[in-house]
Amino acid sequence: MKKLIPVIISGFLASLMITGCGWHLRSSGDTAALAAINKIHIDGDQKNQLYRFISRSLKFSNIAITENSKEAEITIRLTNQRSTSRSASVSSSARVSELHITELVDVEIVTADGKVLLPKTTLSREKFFNYNEDNVSTNAEEQKILKREMMNDLARKIINLLSSMLKKTTQYATES
Questions:
Q1: What's the mean pLDDT in 16-37?
Q2: Residue 25, pLDDT above cutoff 60
Q3: How many whole angstroms separate alpha carbon 113 and alpha carbon 37?
Q4: First and final C-alpha spacing in the chain
Q5: What mean pLDDT comes out for the span 6-10?
Q6: pLDDT mean over 148-159
Q7: How far is the C-alpha of 77 from the C-alpha of 75, rounded, in Å?
Q8: CA atoms within 13 A on the CB side of 134
Q9: Closest listed residue to residue 151, CA positions, set 87, 78, 73, 96
């Protein structure tokens, strides 16, 4: 029993410190701007991982994804998605020891009446990972995991951009 009390006290103090410093979960910020939207059209390849991540995030925010851009209040255009990979460092034996992976996508956000909220912008995410040429299957699996994380980051960034653009638009409308 005596050992349990310090554990409880330290857990309580840790939770007080975390809440007191203003820490919060990522993407748990202000999403009130998204609440005003009912339907969004995502113009892109539906089989694409980025498309699926964006779609899932929007559905989680109770926003319907429509197949027809004419029914949507907002359209998110995803174009020119590409991946690059290059060696970042080489070992003393002139073999690749670290890879640099980059995921890029061009994004444009427009309203139903054609107003451009976000002009065509290239978003990117980069990751480095140690490459072990003796274990190619592990490298491929690690690269696959990193790409998935990067797609998730890009989707989160697009949702945050959409939210901030909507927030700016509503602030501008209320000030006018």
A1: 58
A2: no
A3: 14
A4: 64
A5: 76
A6: 92
A7: 6
A8: 0
A9: 78
